[in-house]
Amino acid sequence: MNRTLAALLLLLAPLTFAQQRPDLKLTTTESFDAASIRPYRGRHQKIYDYIDARQAEHLAAIQRWVRQRSISALNEGVTDMATMLRDDLRRIGFKDAELVPTSGHPGVVGFYDAGAKKTLAVYMMYDVQPVEAEGWKVEAFDGVLVDHDLGRALMARGATNQKGPERSFLNALESIIAVEGKLPVNLLVIAEGEEELGSPHFPEVVAKVEERLRQVSGVLFPMFGQDRQGNVTVNLGVKGIVYFEMEAKGGERGGPVGAEVHGSTKAIIDSPAWRLVQALASLTSEDGNTIVVPGYYDSIRPPTVEEQRVINSMLREWSSREPSMKEALDVRRWANGWTGEQLLLHYLFDTTLNIDGIWSGYTGPGVKTILPHKATAKVDSRLVPDQTPEEALRLIRQHLDRQGFTDIEIRLMGGYPPAQTSASAPLVQQAISVYNKYGLTPALTPRLAGSAPYYVFTRLGLPLLAAGIGHGSGAHAPNEYMLVNPKEGSRIANLPTIEKFYVDLLYALR
After folding, report:
1. Prior bond to 386 cis, omega within 30?
2. What is the pLDDT of residues 224-257, one digit of tens each?
3. Contact at 8 Å (CB) between 1 and 397?
4. Helix ranges restricted to H, 19-127
Protein backbone atom coordinates (compact mmCIF):
# COMPACT_ATOMS: atom_id res chain seq x y z
CA MET A 1 0.00 0.00 0.00
CA ASN A 2 1.48 3.36 -0.96
CA ARG A 3 2.16 5.96 1.69
CA THR A 4 -0.47 8.45 0.46
CA LEU A 5 -3.28 5.87 0.49
CA ALA A 6 -2.29 4.61 3.93
CA ALA A 7 -2.31 8.12 5.31
CA LEU A 8 -5.74 8.77 3.77
CA LEU A 9 -7.21 5.60 5.25
CA LEU A 10 -5.78 6.46 8.66
CA LEU A 11 -7.45 9.85 8.46
CA LEU A 12 -10.84 8.53 7.33
CA ALA A 13 -11.07 5.43 9.57
CA PRO A 14 -11.68 7.30 12.84
CA LEU A 15 -14.32 9.49 11.20
CA THR A 16 -16.26 6.51 9.83
CA PHE A 17 -16.01 4.62 13.11
CA ALA A 18 -16.96 7.50 15.37
CA GLN A 19 -20.00 8.56 13.39
CA GLN A 20 -21.87 5.47 14.58
CA ARG A 21 -24.00 7.32 17.10
CA PRO A 22 -25.85 5.38 19.81
CA ASP A 23 -28.89 3.51 18.53
CA LEU A 24 -31.63 5.33 20.41
CA LYS A 25 -35.04 3.81 19.84
CA LEU A 26 -38.09 2.66 21.75
CA THR A 27 -38.94 -1.04 21.76
CA THR A 28 -42.04 -0.91 23.95
CA THR A 29 -45.27 1.08 23.84
CA GLU A 30 -45.96 0.69 27.57
CA SER A 31 -46.11 3.88 29.66
CA PHE A 32 -45.45 4.67 33.29
CA ASP A 33 -48.68 5.84 34.93
CA ALA A 34 -47.94 8.08 37.93
CA ALA A 35 -51.66 8.79 38.37
CA SER A 36 -52.27 5.15 39.29
CA ILE A 37 -50.32 5.54 42.55
CA ARG A 38 -52.65 6.01 45.50
CA PRO A 39 -52.54 9.56 46.95
CA TYR A 40 -51.08 10.00 50.41
CA ARG A 41 -54.00 10.25 52.82
CA GLY A 42 -52.34 11.60 55.93
CA ARG A 43 -53.40 14.93 57.37
CA HIS A 44 -51.35 16.83 59.94
CA GLN A 45 -53.62 19.78 60.58
CA LYS A 46 -51.90 21.10 63.70
CA ILE A 47 -48.62 21.33 61.81
CA TYR A 48 -50.34 22.95 58.82
CA ASP A 49 -51.91 25.54 61.13
CA TYR A 50 -48.55 26.23 62.72
CA ILE A 51 -47.05 26.85 59.26
CA ASP A 52 -49.88 29.17 58.26
CA ALA A 53 -49.44 31.24 61.43
CA ARG A 54 -45.71 31.76 60.97
CA GLN A 55 -45.26 32.69 57.34
CA ALA A 56 -43.66 36.04 58.11
CA GLU A 57 -40.99 34.25 60.18
CA HIS A 58 -40.50 31.55 57.56
CA LEU A 59 -40.10 34.06 54.73
CA ALA A 60 -37.63 36.01 56.87
CA ALA A 61 -35.57 32.85 57.33
CA ILE A 62 -35.34 32.39 53.56
CA GLN A 63 -34.41 36.06 53.12
CA ARG A 64 -31.68 35.67 55.72
CA TRP A 65 -30.20 32.85 53.66
CA VAL A 66 -30.29 34.60 50.28
CA ARG A 67 -28.85 37.78 51.80
CA GLN A 68 -25.77 35.86 52.87
CA ARG A 69 -23.33 35.83 49.96
CA SER A 70 -21.81 32.42 49.25
CA ILE A 71 -20.20 32.69 45.82
CA SER A 72 -18.01 29.61 45.62
CA ALA A 73 -16.13 30.71 42.48
CA LEU A 74 -14.93 33.84 44.28
CA ASN A 75 -14.73 32.38 47.82
CA GLU A 76 -17.02 35.19 48.88
CA GLY A 77 -18.98 34.57 52.08
CA VAL A 78 -18.71 30.80 51.71
CA THR A 79 -17.60 29.93 55.24
CA ASP A 80 -20.10 32.38 56.71
CA MET A 81 -22.91 30.60 54.84
CA ALA A 82 -21.66 27.18 55.96
CA THR A 83 -21.65 28.42 59.54
CA MET A 84 -25.19 29.79 59.14
CA LEU A 85 -26.41 26.43 57.89
CA ARG A 86 -24.69 24.57 60.72
CA ASP A 87 -26.11 26.93 63.33
CA ASP A 88 -29.61 26.65 61.86
CA LEU A 89 -29.42 22.86 62.06
CA ARG A 90 -28.38 23.09 65.69
CA ARG A 91 -31.27 25.44 66.49
CA ILE A 92 -33.74 23.07 64.85
CA GLY A 93 -32.52 20.18 66.99
CA PHE A 94 -29.65 18.53 65.15
CA LYS A 95 -27.39 17.84 68.14
CA ASP A 96 -24.70 16.48 65.81
CA ALA A 97 -24.04 19.33 63.34
CA GLU A 98 -20.61 20.50 62.28
CA LEU A 99 -18.47 22.00 59.56
CA VAL A 100 -16.37 19.51 57.63
CA PRO A 101 -13.05 20.89 56.37
CA THR A 102 -12.08 19.80 52.85
CA SER A 103 -9.31 20.60 50.40
CA GLY A 104 -11.64 23.36 49.19
CA HIS A 105 -14.73 24.95 50.72
CA PRO A 106 -16.13 23.37 53.90
CA GLY A 107 -19.03 20.97 53.94
CA VAL A 108 -21.73 20.72 56.60
CA VAL A 109 -23.12 17.53 58.10
CA GLY A 110 -25.84 17.10 60.67
CA PHE A 111 -27.73 14.17 62.18
CA TYR A 112 -31.16 14.34 63.81
CA ASP A 113 -31.97 11.28 65.90
CA ALA A 114 -35.72 10.92 66.20
CA GLY A 115 -35.45 7.36 67.45
CA ALA A 116 -37.30 6.34 64.28
CA LYS A 117 -36.99 3.12 62.31
CA LYS A 118 -35.99 4.90 59.10
CA THR A 119 -33.32 7.45 58.28
CA LEU A 120 -33.51 9.79 55.31
CA ALA A 121 -30.45 11.60 53.97
CA VAL A 122 -30.90 15.16 52.70
CA TYR A 123 -28.45 16.56 50.16
CA MET A 124 -27.97 20.34 50.15
CA MET A 125 -25.74 22.86 48.41
CA TYR A 126 -25.21 26.24 50.00
CA ASP A 127 -23.11 27.96 47.31
CA VAL A 128 -24.34 30.19 44.48
CA GLN A 129 -23.09 31.46 41.14
CA PRO A 130 -21.40 34.85 40.65
CA VAL A 131 -23.70 37.80 39.98
CA GLU A 132 -23.82 39.50 36.60
CA ALA A 133 -22.91 43.18 36.57
CA GLU A 134 -26.04 44.16 34.64
CA GLY A 135 -29.61 43.02 34.19
CA TRP A 136 -30.86 42.83 37.78
CA LYS A 137 -34.04 44.72 38.70
CA VAL A 138 -32.95 44.67 42.36
CA GLU A 139 -29.65 44.17 44.15
CA ALA A 140 -28.93 40.45 43.90
CA PHE A 141 -28.30 39.92 47.62
CA ASP A 142 -30.93 42.28 49.04
CA GLY A 143 -33.53 39.50 49.13
CA VAL A 144 -36.57 41.69 48.51
CA LEU A 145 -40.12 40.90 47.40
CA VAL A 146 -41.15 42.13 43.95
CA ASP A 147 -44.27 42.07 41.81
CA HIS A 148 -43.97 39.37 39.16
CA ASP A 149 -46.30 38.45 36.32
CA LEU A 150 -47.05 35.23 38.24
CA GLY A 151 -47.62 36.92 41.61
CA ARG A 152 -45.43 38.08 44.48
CA ALA A 153 -41.85 36.79 44.31
CA LEU A 154 -38.64 36.84 46.30
CA MET A 155 -35.91 37.95 43.87
CA ALA A 156 -32.32 37.18 44.78
CA ARG A 157 -29.34 35.05 43.85
CA GLY A 158 -30.02 31.62 45.33
CA ALA A 159 -33.78 32.15 45.57
CA THR A 160 -34.49 29.07 43.49
CA ASN A 161 -31.03 27.49 43.23
CA GLN A 162 -31.07 26.23 45.95
CA LYS A 163 -31.47 28.31 49.10
CA GLY A 164 -35.20 28.94 48.63
CA PRO A 165 -36.33 25.31 48.52
CA GLU A 166 -33.76 24.18 51.08
CA ARG A 167 -34.68 26.74 53.72
CA SER A 168 -38.39 26.03 53.01
CA PHE A 169 -37.62 22.41 53.86
CA LEU A 170 -35.96 23.46 57.13
CA ASN A 171 -39.03 25.61 57.91
CA ALA A 172 -41.10 22.43 57.61
CA LEU A 173 -38.77 20.60 59.99
CA GLU A 174 -39.02 23.36 62.57
CA SER A 175 -42.81 23.26 62.33
CA ILE A 176 -43.02 19.50 62.85
CA ILE A 177 -40.75 19.60 65.89
CA ALA A 178 -42.59 22.59 67.38
CA VAL A 179 -45.93 20.75 67.19
CA GLU A 180 -45.01 17.07 67.62
CA GLY A 181 -41.76 17.31 69.57
CA LYS A 182 -39.75 15.30 67.07
CA LEU A 183 -39.53 14.32 63.39
CA PRO A 184 -41.17 11.17 61.99
CA VAL A 185 -37.83 9.96 60.56
CA ASN A 186 -34.16 10.36 61.43
CA LEU A 187 -32.39 12.85 59.16
CA LEU A 188 -28.80 12.96 57.92
CA VAL A 189 -28.06 16.32 56.24
CA ILE A 190 -25.01 16.45 53.97
CA ALA A 191 -24.25 19.84 52.42
CA GLU A 192 -21.50 21.16 50.18
CA GLY A 193 -20.25 24.59 49.15
CA GLU A 194 -18.81 23.66 45.77
CA GLU A 195 -21.71 22.40 43.67
CA GLU A 196 -21.34 25.36 41.31
CA LEU A 197 -17.66 24.41 40.88
CA GLY A 198 -18.39 20.82 39.91
CA SER A 199 -18.27 19.41 43.49
CA PRO A 200 -14.54 18.58 43.36
CA HIS A 201 -14.22 17.98 47.11
CA PHE A 202 -17.71 16.76 47.97
CA PRO A 203 -16.51 13.13 48.27
CA GLU A 204 -14.41 14.29 51.25
CA VAL A 205 -17.61 15.43 52.97
CA VAL A 206 -19.42 12.20 52.16
CA ALA A 207 -16.48 10.15 53.46
CA LYS A 208 -17.02 11.76 56.87
CA VAL A 209 -20.45 10.11 57.21
CA GLU A 210 -20.23 7.21 54.76
CA GLU A 211 -20.77 4.51 57.40
CA ARG A 212 -23.93 6.22 58.63
CA LEU A 213 -24.97 7.01 55.05
CA ARG A 214 -25.02 3.31 54.18
CA GLN A 215 -27.87 2.87 56.69
CA VAL A 216 -30.28 5.40 55.12
CA SER A 217 -33.29 4.46 53.00
CA GLY A 218 -32.80 7.18 50.39
CA VAL A 219 -31.66 10.71 49.66
CA LEU A 220 -33.85 13.81 49.21
CA PHE A 221 -32.74 16.96 47.40
CA PRO A 222 -35.26 19.77 48.14
CA MET A 223 -36.18 21.53 44.91
CA PHE A 224 -39.01 23.57 43.38
CA GLY A 225 -40.70 21.22 40.93
CA GLN A 226 -43.41 23.29 39.22
CA ASP A 227 -43.20 25.22 35.96
CA ARG A 228 -45.03 28.46 35.15
CA GLN A 229 -48.25 26.55 34.49
CA GLY A 230 -48.00 24.61 37.74
CA ASN A 231 -47.04 21.30 36.14
CA VAL A 232 -44.58 19.08 38.03
CA THR A 233 -41.62 17.24 36.53
CA VAL A 234 -39.59 14.73 38.53
CA ASN A 235 -36.13 13.80 37.26
CA LEU A 236 -34.95 10.30 38.13
CA GLY A 237 -31.31 10.98 37.38
CA VAL A 238 -28.71 13.34 35.99
CA LYS A 239 -26.06 13.27 33.32
CA GLY A 240 -22.44 13.23 34.40
CA ILE A 241 -19.85 15.70 33.20
CA VAL A 242 -16.20 16.09 32.39
CA TYR A 243 -14.94 19.68 32.22
CA PHE A 244 -11.50 20.58 30.94
CA GLU A 245 -9.36 23.20 29.26
CA MET A 246 -7.47 22.73 26.01
CA GLU A 247 -4.53 25.02 25.34
CA ALA A 248 -2.10 25.55 22.48
CA LYS A 249 1.13 27.43 23.19
CA GLY A 250 4.17 28.50 21.26
CA GLY A 251 7.22 26.31 21.68
CA GLU A 252 9.42 23.81 19.91
CA ARG A 253 6.71 23.06 17.40
CA GLY A 254 6.39 26.74 16.47
CA GLY A 255 4.79 29.99 17.53
CA PRO A 256 5.96 32.72 19.92
CA VAL A 257 6.77 31.46 23.40
CA GLY A 258 6.80 34.25 25.95
CA ALA A 259 4.43 36.88 24.60
CA GLU A 260 2.44 38.01 21.59
CA VAL A 261 4.29 39.32 18.54
CA HIS A 262 3.41 41.60 15.63
CA GLY A 263 0.71 40.21 13.36
CA SER A 264 2.84 40.66 10.25
CA THR A 265 5.14 37.87 11.45
CA LYS A 266 2.45 35.27 10.64
CA ALA A 267 4.21 35.07 7.28
CA ILE A 268 7.00 33.14 8.99
CA ILE A 269 5.68 32.07 12.43
CA ASP A 270 3.15 29.39 13.42
CA SER A 271 -0.04 30.46 15.22
CA PRO A 272 -1.10 28.72 18.46
CA ALA A 273 -4.61 30.12 17.92
CA TRP A 274 -4.98 28.34 14.59
CA ARG A 275 -3.46 25.24 16.14
CA LEU A 276 -6.14 25.15 18.84
CA VAL A 277 -8.91 25.76 16.31
CA GLN A 278 -7.72 22.83 14.20
CA ALA A 279 -7.46 20.57 17.26
CA LEU A 280 -10.98 21.44 18.37
CA ALA A 281 -12.33 20.92 14.85
CA SER A 282 -10.81 17.44 14.77
CA LEU A 283 -13.10 16.33 17.61
CA THR A 284 -16.43 16.63 15.77
CA SER A 285 -18.05 16.51 12.36
CA GLU A 286 -18.18 19.78 10.39
CA ASP A 287 -21.52 20.79 11.90
CA GLY A 288 -20.23 20.11 15.41
CA ASN A 289 -23.06 17.67 16.15
CA THR A 290 -21.31 14.30 15.90
CA ILE A 291 -18.29 13.43 18.00
CA VAL A 292 -15.67 11.74 15.79
CA VAL A 293 -13.38 10.65 18.63
CA PRO A 294 -13.07 6.88 18.09
CA GLY A 295 -14.94 4.90 20.73
CA TYR A 296 -16.61 7.90 22.36
CA TYR A 297 -20.12 6.46 21.91
CA ASP A 298 -19.19 2.83 22.58
CA SER A 299 -20.02 2.63 26.29
CA ILE A 300 -23.41 4.32 26.00
CA ARG A 301 -26.12 1.81 26.87
CA PRO A 302 -29.55 1.87 25.22
CA PRO A 303 -32.59 2.98 27.25
CA THR A 304 -33.86 0.32 29.62
CA VAL A 305 -37.46 -0.87 29.46
CA GLU A 306 -38.30 1.18 32.56
CA GLU A 307 -36.73 4.29 31.02
CA GLN A 308 -38.67 3.67 27.82
CA ARG A 309 -41.92 3.46 29.79
CA VAL A 310 -41.11 6.81 31.36
CA ILE A 311 -40.22 8.27 27.95
CA ASN A 312 -43.52 7.03 26.49
CA SER A 313 -45.42 8.86 29.22
CA MET A 314 -43.45 12.03 28.37
CA LEU A 315 -44.11 11.82 24.63
CA ARG A 316 -47.80 12.60 25.11
CA GLU A 317 -46.98 16.25 25.75
CA TRP A 318 -43.42 16.52 24.42
CA SER A 319 -44.25 17.60 20.87
CA SER A 320 -46.58 20.33 22.10
CA ARG A 321 -43.78 21.67 24.32
CA GLU A 322 -41.20 21.96 21.54
CA PRO A 323 -42.34 25.41 20.30
CA SER A 324 -42.21 26.92 23.80
CA MET A 325 -38.79 25.34 24.38
CA LYS A 326 -37.51 26.93 21.18
CA GLU A 327 -38.86 30.27 22.28
CA ALA A 328 -37.33 29.97 25.75
CA LEU A 329 -33.94 28.98 24.31
CA ASP A 330 -34.21 31.47 21.42
CA VAL A 331 -33.35 28.93 18.71
CA ARG A 332 -34.86 28.50 15.24
CA ARG A 333 -34.20 24.79 14.67
CA TRP A 334 -33.00 21.75 16.56
CA ALA A 335 -29.69 20.06 15.70
CA ASN A 336 -29.85 17.60 12.80
CA GLY A 337 -33.49 18.54 12.20
CA TRP A 338 -34.62 16.28 15.08
CA THR A 339 -38.20 16.52 16.31
CA GLY A 340 -40.52 14.54 18.56
CA GLU A 341 -39.28 11.17 19.77
CA GLN A 342 -35.77 11.46 18.33
CA LEU A 343 -35.30 14.94 19.81
CA LEU A 344 -36.30 13.72 23.26
CA LEU A 345 -34.16 10.58 23.09
CA HIS A 346 -31.04 12.47 22.07
CA TYR A 347 -31.68 15.20 24.64
CA LEU A 348 -31.80 12.69 27.49
CA PHE A 349 -29.73 9.71 26.33
CA ASP A 350 -26.98 11.18 24.13
CA THR A 351 -23.60 12.55 25.13
CA THR A 352 -22.30 16.00 24.16
CA LEU A 353 -19.06 17.82 23.41
CA ASN A 354 -19.41 21.55 23.90
CA ILE A 355 -17.08 24.56 23.67
CA ASP A 356 -18.01 26.76 26.63
CA GLY A 357 -15.56 29.52 25.84
CA ILE A 358 -12.52 30.22 23.69
CA TRP A 359 -10.05 33.08 23.85
CA SER A 360 -6.71 34.26 22.55
CA GLY A 361 -4.92 37.51 21.86
CA TYR A 362 -6.68 40.85 21.65
CA THR A 363 -10.49 41.09 21.86
CA GLY A 364 -10.91 44.73 22.91
CA PRO A 365 -12.21 47.69 20.91
CA GLY A 366 -10.48 48.96 17.80
CA VAL A 367 -7.57 47.30 16.03
CA LYS A 368 -4.52 45.53 17.41
CA THR A 369 -2.71 43.30 14.93
CA ILE A 370 -0.89 40.64 16.91
CA LEU A 371 -0.03 36.96 16.74
CA PRO A 372 -0.95 35.50 20.18
CA HIS A 373 1.47 33.15 21.91
CA LYS A 374 -1.29 30.93 23.32
CA ALA A 375 -4.95 30.06 22.87
CA THR A 376 -7.30 28.39 25.36
CA ALA A 377 -10.75 26.82 25.26
CA LYS A 378 -13.02 25.52 28.00
CA VAL A 379 -14.82 22.35 26.98
CA ASP A 380 -17.43 20.15 28.63
CA SER A 381 -18.99 16.82 27.82
CA ARG A 382 -22.24 15.67 29.42
CA LEU A 383 -22.04 11.96 30.09
CA VAL A 384 -24.78 9.33 30.02
CA PRO A 385 -24.78 5.75 31.32
CA ASP A 386 -22.32 4.02 31.10
CA GLN A 387 -19.75 6.73 30.28
CA THR A 388 -17.15 7.86 32.81
CA PRO A 389 -15.11 11.09 32.96
CA GLU A 390 -11.84 9.16 33.02
CA GLU A 391 -12.60 7.19 29.87
CA ALA A 392 -13.99 10.21 28.01
CA LEU A 393 -10.84 12.23 28.68
CA ARG A 394 -8.60 9.29 27.80
CA LEU A 395 -10.32 8.88 24.43
CA ILE A 396 -10.01 12.59 23.65
CA ARG A 397 -6.31 12.60 24.58
CA GLN A 398 -5.71 9.50 22.50
CA HIS A 399 -7.52 10.99 19.50
CA LEU A 400 -5.56 14.25 19.65
CA ASP A 401 -2.29 12.36 19.83
CA ARG A 402 -3.21 10.19 16.84
CA GLN A 403 -4.13 13.27 14.87
CA GLY A 404 -0.74 14.82 15.59
CA PHE A 405 -1.88 17.23 18.30
CA THR A 406 0.43 15.93 21.02
CA ASP A 407 1.37 19.52 21.84
CA ILE A 408 -2.19 20.45 22.85
CA GLU A 409 -2.39 20.55 26.64
CA ILE A 410 -5.47 19.21 28.41
CA ARG A 411 -6.20 20.35 31.97
CA LEU A 412 -8.97 18.54 33.82
CA MET A 413 -11.13 21.03 35.73
CA GLY A 414 -13.63 18.58 37.20
CA GLY A 415 -16.08 15.82 36.48
CA TYR A 416 -18.18 12.96 37.76
CA PRO A 417 -20.27 10.11 36.31
CA PRO A 418 -24.03 10.07 35.67
CA ALA A 419 -26.50 8.84 38.28
CA GLN A 420 -29.84 7.09 38.08
CA THR A 421 -32.72 6.14 40.38
CA SER A 422 -35.44 3.63 39.53
CA ALA A 423 -39.06 4.73 39.27
CA SER A 424 -39.93 1.68 41.38
CA ALA A 425 -37.84 2.83 44.36
CA PRO A 426 -40.03 3.29 47.47
CA LEU A 427 -38.74 6.87 47.84
CA VAL A 428 -40.03 7.71 44.35
CA GLN A 429 -43.34 5.91 44.80
CA GLN A 430 -44.02 7.63 48.13
CA ALA A 431 -43.14 11.04 46.74
CA ILE A 432 -45.54 10.51 43.83
CA SER A 433 -48.28 9.62 46.33
CA VAL A 434 -47.75 12.99 48.03
CA TYR A 435 -47.80 14.84 44.70
CA ASN A 436 -51.06 13.08 43.91
CA LYS A 437 -52.53 14.23 47.22
CA TYR A 438 -52.04 17.82 46.04
CA GLY A 439 -53.57 17.09 42.62
CA LEU A 440 -50.18 17.51 40.98
CA THR A 441 -49.48 14.16 39.36
CA PRO A 442 -45.88 14.50 38.18
CA ALA A 443 -44.42 13.85 34.77
CA LEU A 444 -41.39 11.63 35.26
CA THR A 445 -38.26 11.92 33.15
CA PRO A 446 -35.35 9.44 33.20
CA ARG A 447 -32.84 12.17 33.90
CA LEU A 448 -32.04 15.84 33.86
CA ALA A 449 -30.02 16.88 30.82
CA GLY A 450 -27.73 18.79 33.18
CA SER A 451 -25.40 17.47 35.84
CA ALA A 452 -25.25 17.17 39.63
CA PRO A 453 -23.07 15.06 41.97
CA TYR A 454 -25.75 12.50 42.75
CA TYR A 455 -23.28 9.69 41.99
CA VAL A 456 -21.77 9.95 45.49
CA PHE A 457 -25.06 8.53 46.76
CA THR A 458 -26.20 6.25 43.94
CA ARG A 459 -22.82 4.46 43.86
CA LEU A 460 -23.76 3.23 47.35
CA GLY A 461 -27.01 1.84 45.97
CA LEU A 462 -29.10 4.67 47.41
CA PRO A 463 -32.06 6.13 45.52
CA LEU A 464 -31.92 9.92 45.21
CA LEU A 465 -34.87 12.13 44.40
CA ALA A 466 -35.03 15.88 43.83
CA ALA A 467 -38.54 16.70 45.00
CA GLY A 468 -40.80 19.55 46.02
CA ILE A 469 -43.51 21.85 44.77
CA GLY A 470 -43.44 25.58 44.17
CA HIS A 471 -41.92 27.54 41.33
CA GLY A 472 -38.73 29.48 40.76
CA SER A 473 -36.63 30.39 37.77
CA GLY A 474 -33.61 32.37 36.61
CA ALA A 475 -30.94 30.16 38.16
CA HIS A 476 -27.45 31.43 37.21
CA ALA A 477 -29.05 34.47 35.56
CA PRO A 478 -30.19 37.99 36.49
CA ASN A 479 -33.48 38.32 38.37
CA GLU A 480 -33.49 34.83 39.84
CA TYR A 481 -36.69 34.37 41.84
CA MET A 482 -38.95 32.08 43.82
CA LEU A 483 -42.70 32.61 43.79
CA VAL A 484 -43.99 33.24 47.32
CA ASN A 485 -47.64 34.18 46.67
CA PRO A 486 -48.95 33.15 43.24
CA LYS A 487 -51.82 35.03 41.65
CA GLU A 488 -55.33 33.84 42.42
CA GLY A 489 -56.28 30.84 40.33
CA SER A 490 -52.69 29.67 39.83
CA ARG A 491 -51.85 25.98 40.25
CA ILE A 492 -48.44 26.96 41.61
CA ALA A 493 -48.02 26.32 45.35
CA ASN A 494 -47.49 29.24 47.71
CA LEU A 495 -44.87 29.16 50.46
CA PRO A 496 -47.11 27.56 53.13
CA THR A 497 -48.12 24.78 50.72
CA ILE A 498 -44.48 24.19 49.75
CA GLU A 499 -43.70 23.56 53.40
CA LYS A 500 -46.77 21.38 53.98
CA PHE A 501 -45.71 19.19 51.06
CA TYR A 502 -42.43 18.47 52.86
CA VAL A 503 -44.31 17.70 56.07
CA ASP A 504 -46.44 15.15 54.24
CA LEU A 505 -43.43 13.69 52.45
CA LEU A 506 -41.54 13.04 55.69
CA TYR A 507 -44.54 11.33 57.23
CA ALA A 508 -45.13 9.29 54.07
CA LEU A 509 -41.53 8.05 54.23
CA ARG A 510 -41.59 6.84 57.85
Report:
1. yes
2. 999 999 999 999 999 999 999 999 999 999 999 9
3. no
4. 45-53, 55-67, 78-92
